[in-house]
Each structure stands twice: as C-alpha cells, then as structure tokens.
Write a structure and sequence with these properties.
Blueprint: E1 6-7, H1 8-20, H2 26-31, H3 36-39, E2 45-46, H4 48-62, H5 78-86, H6 92-104, E3 111-117, E4 120-126, H7 136-153, E5 159-163, H8 175-178, E6 183-184, E7 191-195, H9 207-213, H10 219-223, H11 231-239, H12 249-255, H13 260-269, H14 274-290, H15 297-303, H16 309-320, H17 324-331
Parallel strand pairs: 5-6
Antiparallel strand pairs: 1-2, 3-4, 4-7, 5-7
GO cellular component, one term: cytosol
GO molecular function: DNA-binding transcription factor activity; transcription cis-regulatory region binding
Protein name: AraC family transcriptional regulator
Length: about 325
Amino acid sequence: MRERTIASHFVRAALRGAERHGHDCLPLLRQLNIQPALLDEPRARVAPEQFAHLLQLLWERLDDEYLGFGRTASKRGTFAMMCHAIIHCRSLEKALGRGALFYSLFPEAPTISLSREGDWARLSVDDSSLLDPDHFLVESLLVIWHRLGSWLIGQRIRLEEATFRYAEPAHSAEYGLLFPCPRRFAAGSTSLLFHARYLSMPLLQDERTLKQFLQHSPADLLARPDGGDSLISQIRRLLGRDCSNWPDLEAVAQHLHMSPQTLRRHLREEGSSFQELKDQLRRDLAIYLLGRDELSTQDIAEQLGFSEPSAFHRAFKKWTGLTPGAYRAQEN
C-alpha cells in the first residue's frame, strides 16, 4: 500500500551525513513541509513521498549518492551508470557480480560481494569504511540491491534471512517492512540470504525499461517499504482500507487456512498482534488522509471507523505523539 508511512528515525538518520559535512538541513525540511519538531517526536512518521523527495534533495545538495556517509563521495549518476553496465548481462548472477565489480573500482567504497553457500546465495555489504552511526547507508544499500535484483528478473526475490553486524536497535520493529524475513543482529556480517536458484534466472529488463526505472530510483526503492509475502503484509492486504468493514481475526485465519490460535502464535513470533496490526494500519491511513486538505478530521475519524472525533484524537496522539490538528499544522 502506498500509505505505508516512514518512522521519523529514518528521516533523522538520513540527515546525519549532510549535517556532519556542515549543511543546514532546516531549509530542506521546510521545502518538504516537515517541521523539525516532528523529528523530535520518536513516534512521529512521514509520508513515503516526503521521504523519497528528501533523499533526492540530499543527493542533489551533496552531489553524493552515499549521502555524506562515505569517506569519499559517490557522485550522482554512479548508480545509473552501474545499472547501464549490468543491464545486458545474461543472468542475475552475472549482473550482481558485475555491479559489485563496478563499485570496487572506487576507492574506499563499501565492498559489495556475492557468495554461494550450497543451495543459498549471500549478498554482503562491508560497511567498515563508512561513517554511518545509524547504519542508514548500509541498510539502504541492502534494500536497493535486493529490489534492483528483483526488478531485473521480474519477480520478487524471497529473502531467507537478513543479518547485521551491529546490535539490535531500538527501532527494530520497523525492519519488517525493509527486510521481510528472519533477522539476526550482532552477526558476523551485514548480508541478505536467498536461494541460489534466482542467480541463474535471465534478466527481463532492457535499456528502455531501465530508463523508466531510473526516473525514480534508487530513492523510490527505499521510500516504498515492501513487506512482500510476510504474514503481516498478507493480513494488511486482507484488511484493506475500509476500516468499518474489517474482517475479524477468525475470518482472517480462515482465509489464511489456519486456526485462530495458530495465527495468534505466528503473529506473536513476529513480535506483533492482530490488534497492533489494525492500529498500525489505521495510523498509516490517518497520516495519509491528513495529507488531503479537503477532508476534515471528523471525516477522517469516520473513515477510520471511530465512533466520535475525540476517540480518534486520543488514538492518534498515542500513535504519533501529536494530535491530528497539530500533525496537520506541522505538515502545512
């Protein structure tokens, strides 16, 4: 769903490189209608369009696709040139290998490597050369390369595991949208594991489709969290946008061919619950609808299934730390 929102943590993290280089980021935030006070609230969130636009503005301001997190800049156009270098490869394995070789030509660039482990393939990023305290760039590179590979072969590459060299961060609940698979922290490397069968698949894209792809990439790849075929994403799709007509847990379990008890257990294992999923979906829809000036907060409360506006106000403040009116004022 396009309404999936982005946690304020990622906005703060994206700005760190520019701030380290002495750039005043307040004009950028104002240009995007993101008030600095919004970033001081850990529960606050922004629309994906705002986040994608922020990344594009940072790339332009810094002329650096590494957003100021590398020891040397990666000039704008480098990613596009890499894509042109790999688009005619005969298989995904050749394309990923050539892409990794392309970036290895640049001194002090993060090392990207592809290896086989029996029936599995592992794409790793060595971030030891980066000045990236929030790990924003290394996580972005993993997401970009996964989604680039999926686009090249015309199907989503199912991830089996994501590993990270660092300890589990406070915002790890957000990782389900970026890495819809089991995640392991304090691991030996930062990597993605997937089945090696994808590597032999032919590329289904060409120069024509690449031109269209590059109009919005890689910013759009990062700003559109994709839960893929995870249980949580399946449930979000089943619930849809009509909050007043949501199926109950028993109906969702039946649709997924499992018992309600099994569904609850699986959600618990993923660190969530049915009620929490409904709250998160309502929150994301609320933020999306508040961006539409023609809707009053009462209209939005009704669309979200609240019996009265005051209940919506209380719920929204619990979700984001701000009232709907204050949030809308921040956005305008």
